[in-house]
Amino acid sequence: MRCPFCKEDQDRVIDSRSSEGGRIIRRRRQCLVCKRRFTTYEKVGETYKLSVIKKDGSRVPYEREKIIAGLQKACYKRPVSAEQMQEIADKIEEEVFRNFDKEVSSRFLGEAAMRHLRKVDKVAYIRFASVYRDFKDAGELLDEVHQVLQEPDLSDQPGLFGH
Q1: Could you give the number of structural domains in the chain?
Q2: Where in the sequence is the domain holding 22, given as residue range(s)?
């Protein structure tokens, strides 16, 4: 593996972990030349691609990057780390690959993202929900905010997404 910093091909693996339900191996490496650390991911090439069925009935290839991008927008300037967003995406993918073979609805993906965001950061959840649910007016948004405010805050409990 070439170092992304000095481009040398001499490194050692410091740590290996399974992620995305065991479908990907995350390896932490250290370059033996420049001593910098970097992360690589290994995954088995998929023989088929999962499709996402959009609201309008069209089908598009599943892309993890789109889930991450949506989470990043919702979590912008919020105390949610990139690692927490990756964990949410991992959990969503575990649910998808456990429950679907070839196609998954965008509705399932959006609901799963909201469910996990709600546990991590309620403001990020409201941001995501406001776009995903396409509230028609401020009253619908306020109803959602009131519902979230009535729940106990679980985001600061140990064991939830790395806190």
Answers
A1: 2
A2: 1-43
Instruction: Name which residue leads in pLDDT, 43 or 50.
Output: 50
3-state secondary structure 103-163: EEEHHHHHHHHHHHHHHHCHHHHHHHHHHHCCCCCHHHHHHHHHHHHCCCCCCCCCCCCCC
pLDDT top residue among 115 and 45: 115
Q: What is the DSSP letter of 4?
A: T
- Together in a domain, 36 and 59: no
Residue 161 maps to a domain: no
Q: Which of 10, 18, 7, 62 is nearest to 41 (CA)?
A: 18
pTM, two decimals, is: 0.61
Q: What is the C-alpha separation between 96 and 52, in angstroms, rounded?
A: 11
